[in-house]
Specification:
This protein is mainly beta and 239 residues long. The protein folds into 2 domains: 30 residues; 203 residues, Sandwich (Jelly Rolls). It is built from 1 helix and 17 strands.
Length: 239
């Protein structure tokens, strides 16, 4: 016999409420697809003529008939990102394989992005490095290079140390894996399973903690870049 039915009912209600709260928090922290593989629903571009879906991938292409004279961006319309992880695959050819994933950024009225970019390039320091697109801070736009961990202090002074490995892009228009992690002022980039750069950005008035997520088509020579299997995990609380 239950001698305290009221207490038991209260306990059941509290347990159910806690379960719902924990389930909601867990769901919010899971990876979810933000590209349906068929359409550009949920994405927007200043110049949409450069963007389409082809072979299940977001595709951007410039040609002699459709030259790209200014960087173009396709922006996710699901809201700003703060602390997050994103996993995707990319492949690119032409124009030095120059592209990138824009994050925690702003989009100007002319369609250009300002802020952090997880860079894509055919090789060298830019591949897997973090750039500051259209930067206004002192120093190079490349904040941390492929194979390095860089700390930027409040005054903009940079200290870099080498990591154990560097990223290498797969040849012949093969798919590459990109994993981008941003928590507070700490950013980590991995390409094809290699942790290729880290950035801790504490520079006053330049360290962006929230902003848009977007994909880049680089200006210049004709090129084609594709992105697929785009999964986003928004982190509710930094550790």
């Amino acid at each position: 016999m239950n001698r305290f039915p009221g207490l038991l009912s209260t306990a059941i209600i509290l347990s159910s409420a806690l379960f719902c709260l924990n389930s909601s928090a867990s769901a919010a922290d899971e990876f979810v697809p933000i590209f349906d593989g068929k359409t550009l629903n949920g994405w927007k571009a200043h110049r949409p003529e450069y963007w389409r879906v082809e072979d299940g991938a977001i595709t951007a292409e410039s040609t002699p008939d459709l030259p790209c004279t200014a960087n173009q961006f396709l922006v996710w319309q699901g809201g700003d990102v703060a602390d997050f992880e994103i996993r995707l695959q990319f492949r690119v050819r032409g124009n030095g394989c120059n592209s990138g994933v824009q994050f925690r950024s702003k989009i100007r009225d002319d369609g250009l992005a300002v802020g952090y970019q997880a860079d894509i390039y055919q090789s060298g320091p830019y591949l897997g490095g973090v750039c500051d697109e259209i930067h206004t801070r002192n120093g190079p736009e490349l904040l941390t290079a492929n194979g390095f961990r860089t700390v930027i202090d409040e005054n903009g002074q940079r200290e870099a140390e080498p990591l154990s490995q560097k990223a290498v892009m797969k040849p012949d228009f093969e798919w590459n894996d990109y994993h981008i992690i941003a928590r507070g002022q700490h950013m980590i980039l991995e390409i094809n399973g290699v942790r290729c750069s880290e950035l801790i950005d504490r520079e006053t008035e330049h360290a962006d903690l929230t902003g848009i997520l977007g994909l880049q088509l680089r200006s210049g020579m004709p090129m084609k870049v594709q992105f697929r299997n785009i999964l986003l995990r928004q982190i509710s609380e930094s550790p």
